[in-house]
Amino acid sequence: MSNWTYTIGAGYYYNHMTLIQNAMNVKAFFEEHYPSMTKEAIIGIIANMDHESYLNPAQQEHGKGGSASYGYGLLMWTPARTKIVAYANQEGGNWYDGDLQLDYARISIPSTWIVSQAYPYTWAQYQTLNDYNEATRTFFYNFERGTWHDELDEYAAFWASELYGDTPPSPEPPLPPSPEEEDEDLLLWLVMFLCKFFK
């Protein structure tokens, strides 16, 4: 049973130094359960957790009044009701328990991982990445999927230094995410329109 710092709610912001123990818990978990996973891949996960929940396992999605229809936990599982809350009920535990959430992460990450065009790595391939920025972006685009925020690179650099004593190189701008199917159709239509217009 790990020692976790947590506060249940949507309005809590922790600084990095407060949650070093939480980050160490995540690091230890993935090192134990995925012994061949690179440190870069582990930091990619931790950086995304920092972005999603400030590494507070009891974090609830901002502005949603604690509704379980929205995100809860280290990775903001959404809807919480059918994901982390349902898993906690099944296991007879508390949804805000960090250890329980890490167990759930082992199920939810590979089952909802989608290989993107920009970062074409399977979950197994992700575990072998040896670049902190590439790992952070791959985890974001293939698991979290949303709007990229540059502070993710800062989180990766902080935790790489704090947990492994490494200083990642300054990152290049991230590749854009893979377009959704309907976006591809829209882009194709736009290209055809512009070609016709400028003939």
CATH topology, which one?
Lysozyme
Mean pLDDT: 89
Order of helices and strands: HHHHHHHH
By DSSP (H or I, 4+ residues per run), the number of helices equals: 8
Sheet with most strands: none
Question: What percentage of amino acids are in beta strands?
Answer: under 5%
Structural class: mainly alpha
The best one-word shape is globular
Reported CATH architecture: Orthogonal Bundle
Number of E-type strands? 0
Tally of domains: 1
Assign a percent range to the helix content: 40-55%
Spatial extent as radius of gyration: 18 Å
Q: Give the low-confidence spans.
A: none
Walk me through what this model shows.
The chain is mostly helical. The chain has one domain: Lysozyme (Orthogonal Bundle). The chain has helices at 20-33, 39-53, 84-91, 98-112, 123-126, 132-144, 151-164, 181-197. The longest helix is centred in the C-terminal third of the chain and has 17 residues, at 181-197. The protein is globular, with a radius of gyration of 18 Å.
